[in-house]
Structures are given as structure tokens and as C-alpha cells.
Design goal:
The protein has 309 residues and is an alpha+beta fold. The protein has three domains: 86 residues, Rossmann fold (3-Layer(aba) Sandwich), CATH 3.40.50.20; 133 residues, ATP-grasp fold, B domain (D-amino Acid Aminotransferase, Chain A, domain 1, 2-Layer Sandwich), CATH 3.30.470.20; 65 residues, 2-Layer Sandwich (Dna Ligase, domain 1), CATH 3.30.1490.20. The strands form three sheets. Strands 9, 10, 11, 12, 13 and 14 form a six-stranded antiparallel beta sheet that branches. The chain has a four-stranded parallel beta sheet with strand order 2-1-3-4, sandwiched between helices. A four-stranded antiparallel beta sheet has the order 5-8-6-7, with helices on one face. The longest helix has 17 residues. It is globular, with a radius of gyration of 19 Å. It is found in: Cytoplasm.
């Protein structure tokens, strides 16, 4: 038994819209830690109160909850109050990264590259403004709920009517919606593990965009790692990922997503503080190229557990 980490709860499931993905990520990580000899146990907060962590003597929590309730700072704050060390970013970093709008505000203030955008509120959205919004944002717009992951509630639109429908759908998930200029080009992602930047991945899908189905269900999505960038451009992207992650107070481990336009310019999309960890997910893919097995990766993530963030 690996006693370095003590009794560990792998927290997965939860009640967010990303529950199914979380269950798969958490089970994969739990299995890997058990194989490595860690005293690890699954813990689904949808079924059990967090006070059981204290009652049952858990010393650390490896968070595999995606979306709200696990990735938005609320769980992190609860664990700090309970005095239990946990993986990944703290309260501030988690809350900021979960909010795509406030993340963009910070990046914009720091001069980091991000696409043009507008924000609409459920209480004041005027469907009649759709044509003006489409024109102002270059003719093609990505509609995104402010605080959802896994592309849930997202849509790519080109007309005022499509925009109105997509915004109303996004309002089912959040009271604020981000309308972002669509960047025509290729999508990249960079994973961060402690002080280490893993190789970038380039994704390609024949679908309209890299949506939930492309991420988790389709067999046609292609992943390129190494991504095909020159060493100089790979370093440029790595540096930008580190800056973007630090800007929102991210720490421990995470993933930063980008678009690259036809002129070679990178634009920041979002930060994920609890990325997917199924054996087909992006972080494990990059880790393999960097020489880390899934088991080693799970142990590295567990080593980011701390009480002070």
C-alpha cells in the first residue's frame, strides 16, 4: 500500500450537466491510483454529505468533478473549511476559470489574445439586436453559456434567427451568455501539470465545431500530438498557456484551449481546471507523448493536493 498520500477520496459524479463525463474520468483515475497502491476510494457528493470525508478519515481529495459544484470554487471552499487537502486550483482560480466572461475580461486587461465578444443577459436580451451582433462579430458567432463546460449549450450561428434560438437555448444553462467571434482555423489545447507544460494537441472534426459529440462520442475526431508546430511556435504556445493559466490564478494542473487563425495567430478560448481524465481524454494523450503513463499522470495530479491554494 502506498502510504505517502494517506486515505484518498477520488470525488466524481456530482449533479452538474457533466455528471456522465465525470463518472468516467473519476473511475479511470480511481482504478489507476489503486493499481499504484494508493488507499483510494470513490466518493460521489450527489449521494453522500461532505462531512463523511472527515468522519471517515480522508486526508486528501482528488477532484474529478467537472462543471458546477466541482470546478467552480464551491467544493474547493468547502474542503478548505473542512481542512482537507485537495487537487488542482483553489477557490479563486476555480471560480474565475469556470466563468468564461470574467476570464476574458482578465485576459483582455492583460493584453492576452482573445476573440472579440459581447455579453448578453437573460433579463435584458433583445432578439431584435441579432443582426447587429452578427455583423459586429464578423458574421459567424459562437454562443456559449458563461459557466458550462464540455461544449454544453454551445452553438455556432451565422444569422439573427439562429442567434436568437441559440441564445435562448444557452439561457437554459446560465443567465449570462458569451457571444464570441468565431475564429476560422485550427483548435489546439495545452495541458499543464505542476511546473510542466505538456506537448500541445491539435484537434480536427468534420462537425460544425468541436462540440460535445466530437469530444466524447464521434469516431471521426482526429487528434494530432505532437501537433505539428515548429519548436519555436510550440514554445510560444506553451508560454501563452502558462500566462493565461496564471492570470486566472490557476494552479496544480489544468488545460488551456486555443484557436489559431489562418494567419498563424493564437486566440485564447478558455481554461479547464478539472479536465477530462478518461483514457481517451486530452491530458492523458499529451502525457503519453511526454512519457507519462496514465498511472503516473494520476499520481502527479494527486501530488498537487494541498490545503493552501
Amino acid at each position: 500500500m502506498n502510504r505517502v498520500f494517506g486515505k484518498v477520496a477520488v470525488m466524481f459524479g456530482g449533479s452538474s450537466a457533466e455528471r456522465e463525463v465525470s463518472l468516467k474520468s473519476g473511475q479511470a483515475v480511481l482504478d489507476a491510483l489503486k493499481t499504484a497502491g494508493v488507499d483510494a476510494h470513490g466518493f460521489d457528493p450527489a449521494d453522500r454529505p461532505l462531512t463523511q470525508l472527515v468522519e471517515q478519515g480522508f486526508e486528501r481529495v482528488l477532484i474529478m468533478l467537472h462543471g458546477r459544484g466541482g470546478e467552480d470554487g464551491s467544493l474547493q471552499g468547502a474542503l478548505q473549511q473542512l481542512g482537507i487537502a485537495y487537487s488542482g486550483s483553489g477557490v479563486l482560480g476555480s471560480a474565475l476559470s469556470m466563468d468564461k466572461i470574467r476570464t476574458k475580461w482578465i485576459w483582455q486587461a492583460l493584453g492576452l489574445p482573445t476573440a472579440e465578444y459581447q455579453v448578453v443577459d437573460k433579463s435584458s436580451f433583445d432578439a431584435g439586436s441579432g443582426a447587429d451582433i452578427i455583423a459586429a462579430l464578423g458574421g459567424t458567432v459562437m454562443v456559449k453559456p458563461a459557466r458550462e463546460g464540455s461544449s454544453i449549450g454551445m452553438a455556432k450561428v451565422t444569422t439573427a434567427d439562429e442567434l436568437s434560438v441559440a441564445v435562448q437555448e444557452a439561457f437554459k444553462y446560465d443567465n449570462q451568455v458569451l457571444l464570441e467571434q468565431y475564429i476560422q482555423g485550427e483548435e489546439y489545447t495545452v495541458s499543464l501539470l505542476g511546473e510542466r507544460v505538456l506537448p500541445s494537441i491539435r484537434m480536427h472534426t468534420p462537425r460544425t465545431f468541436y462540440d460535445y459529440e466530437a469530444k466524447y462520442q464521434a469516431s471521426t475526431t482526429q487528434y494530432h500530438c505532437p501537433s505539428g508546430l515548429t519548436p519555436e511556435t510550440e514554445q510560444q504556445l506553451a508560454d501563452l498557456a502558462v500566462q493565461a493559466f496564471a492570470a486566472v490564478n490557476g494552479c496544480g494542473w489544468g488545460r488551456v484551449d486555443f484557436m489559431r487563425d489562418q494567419h498563424g495567430r493564437f486566440y485564447l478560448l478558455e481554461v479547464n481546471t478539472v479536465p477530462g481524465m478518461t483514457k481517451k481524454s486530452l491530458v492523458p494523450m499529451a502525457a503519453r507523448v511526454a512519457g507519462l503513463s496514465f498511472e503516473q499522470l494520476a499520481l502527479e495530479i494527486l501530488s498537487t493536493t494541498d490545503r493552501e491554494k
